[in-house]
């Protein structure tokens, strides 16, 4: 579980490993974030920064973020999606804990 602080803006890095050894770098990626009760999507198909095989998801839990309100403390789930022709895998959930 990854711990984040309420009201901050920070990257969560998701390293990807290709077990087949065919893919050495990703080109694009998106991410989604949902709260643990599964009632609210805080991000949906949000563009991520890609560097090699790492996906950088910028989570803004402050009032300047996607909901225009500070996210409440609690559990969230992060999912990443990226194209690897002919597939588009969606990995997750990656558990997040937002603390005061």
Q: What is the structure about, briefly put?
A:
With 100 residues, this protein is mainly beta.
Q: How would the blueprint of this fold be written?
A:
Layout: E1 2-5, E2 9-15, E3 30-35, E4 41-47, E5 49-51, E6 54-60, E7 74-81, E8 90-99
Parallel strand pairs: 1-8
Antiparallel strand pairs: 2-6, 3-4, 3-7, 5-6, 7-8
Q: What coarse outline follows from CA principal-axis ratios?
A: elongated
Major sheet characteristics: 5 strands, mixed
Mean pLDDT: 95
Instruction: Work out the helicity level.
Output: under 10%
Q: Which strand order do you get reading across the main beta sheet?
A: 1-8-7-3-4
- The SSE string, one letter per element, is EEEEEEEE
N- to C-terminal distance: 16 Å
- Find the count of extended strands (DSSP E, 2+ residues): 8
Number of helices: 0
User: Rg from C-alpha positions?
Assistant: 14 Å
| Regions with little confidence, pLDDT below 50 for 5+ residues | none
Q: Determine the strand fraction and express it as a percent band.
A: over 45%
**Structural class of the helices, strands and pairings?**
mainly beta
């Amino acid at each position: 579980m990854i711990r984040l602080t309420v009201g901050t803006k920070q990257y969560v890095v998701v390293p990807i490993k290709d077990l087949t050894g065919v893919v050495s770098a990703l080109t694009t990626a998106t991410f989604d974030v949902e709260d643990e009760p599964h009632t609210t999507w805080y991000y949906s198909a949000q563009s991520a920064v890609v560097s090699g095989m790492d996906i950088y998801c910028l989570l803004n839990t402050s009032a300047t973020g996607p909901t225009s309100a500070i996210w409440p403390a609690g559990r969230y789930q992060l999912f990443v999606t990226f194209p690897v022709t002919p597939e588009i895998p969606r990995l997750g959930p990656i558990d997040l804990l937002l603390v005061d």
